[in-house]
Structure formats: C-alpha cells, structure tokens
Amino acid sequence: MEDVSLCEAWLQICHCPVSGNEMKFFHMWKKIHAEFCEKIPGSTRTEMTLSSRWKILNKELGKWRAALAKAMDNYRSGENRTNEMIQAQMWFGATGGGKKSFNHHECWEVVKYCKRFIIIPTGPPLC
To answer: Cross-referenced PANTHER family, in alphabetical order (predicted)?
Structure first.
C-alpha cells in the first residue's frame, strides 16, 4: 500500500503540467512527502526515506518496463497477454540472476502511462 501511494504521489507531483520538471530535488520531495502523508495519514516516513524507497522502486519498475517491452516485441502469433507476462517475468528474473520476480504490479499500473515508463511498441505493425 505504501509503495502504491508513493507512486501515486510521485506521479501527481512530478508530472504536474505547471511545475513538474522545474522543481529542485529538495522541494520536489517535500511536495511528494506532503502528498504521500495525505494518502497515508500518520506515516512516519520522511522525505529522505521516501526518496530512498523511490530509488529502489524506480529501478525495479525500469527493469520491468524493459522486460515487458522485450516480451511485447517478441510476440508470436497465437500467444496472449498471459504468455507475454510470463515471458516478461522470465526476462526480469534473468536481470537479477534468476533469483527474483517482479512483484510491484500495482505500482506498475499507476506509472505505466507516464513518459518515463510508457512502452512504445517496436515490433511489426498489426493488421
């Protein structure tokens, strides 16, 4: 729940059409922290701990994006989205030496359409 709230707060603050990419690092995390605390009242997380957690999530989400893009580009006739997710999970595991799987799907659902994570298909066009 905290990770999803952090992703929502990050998305809302960093993708604000007025000031999103113009904020200084400290000010940005101060605003993300305020937004996060509205979502999770009573949280003891600080700006610094949220920033540290986001660094980990961002890395994991980036690896998942790459694995999912690779699976989408490797689409074969007759396969479905389940096969695509299984393939992506295998490639994600390979990036970690096969020791872990992606388990931040709720976070992915929050960020998957923002510029940083959106997947632009590069495979052959579908008719």
So the answer is: GLYCINE-RICH PROTEIN-RELATED (PTHR45023:SF4), PTHR45023
> In the prediction, which pLDDT does 124 show?
58
Give the chain's domain count: 1
What is the DSSP track for 10-77? HHHHHT-TTTTTTS-HHHHHHHHHHHHHHHSTT----HHHHHHHHHHHHHHHHHHHHHHHHHHHT--T
- What's the half-sphere exposure (Cβ side, CA atoms, 13 Å) at 122? 9
pLDDT, tens digit (0-9, with 9 covering 90-100), for 98-118: 668 899 999 999 999 988 888
Phi then psi for 60, rounded to 5 degrees?
A: -65, -45
What pTM, to 2 d.p., does this model score? 0.82
Distance from C-alpha of 33 to C-alpha of 38, rounded to nearest angstrom:
9
Q: Which of 49-63, 76-90, 97-111 has the highest mean pLDDT?
A: 49-63
Nearest-angstrom CA–CA distance, 60 and 72? 18
- Full residue range of the structural domain in which residue 107 is found: 2-111
